[in-house]
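User: Fold this; tokens only.

Assistant: Input:
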Amino acid sequence: MTVGARDLEPARSARELYGAELRRQRQLARMSLDRLSDVVNYSKTHLHGVETGERLPLPPISEKLDAAFGTGELFQGLWGVVKREHTPRRFDHCLELEAKAVRIQAYGSILVPGLLQTSAYMRALFRKSNPNATPEEVGKLVSERLSRQERLRGDTPPEYWAILDEAILRRGVGGQAVMHDQLASLLPLVDTERTTIQVVPFYVGEYAGMSGSITLLTLPDNSTTVYEEGSDSGEIFDDRETATRRLRDYDRMKACALSPEGSAALIKAAMENFKSCEPHQT
């Protein structure tokens, strides 16, 4: 089935300008979304979302589009406009580093880290944090976060390691079915070649760095940038002293956490507390 094209208004937003130009260049090249997907190694669904202005064109997609169409730095330049329009300065810088990182290490004490969230889990969080937001505004926030997840499925995915406090598994964000599906989505990523998920169980008690959330982004030059996030703000640290201290804390968290096998078992046990939408098999 062919997905219908949505009318774009390039003058309305930078993201729609980007999408309109992508559609124009693709049509000039007489290239289908399927063919472009093969060329740039992004899913057809993701490319359609970018082209219709529903997903954020996070790096390195702009570089790949410029290479595919021979457009110099056209899409890279458009991305510069898009990111200034849609993201706060500090988090914007974090997104740029996330797109380049060869290793991403995340910790969450209350919520599933963004790169692991399902769309329904995201939507529940965005609705609660801003009850006055329109469905369209919430949808844009969800699509932007989903766009970031494409990084883990690209041709050169980073090593991704997440440590979750057991409290995350017990808090029913979005209701029974949403939480069940969120936990289920973690299981295939617990122990793979590029992803690891560990859970710190309640019986551990206190441990280093257990408050808030933290992301450690290691770049190709082996430098590490720290992004610490609170409920309404985030802070970036790229000095060696802070990075070394946070990396040490993260290693201590790993020592406190269950093995991937033990973590998967705890996730499955937590799923029993939440009901799935799936019909029972007889």
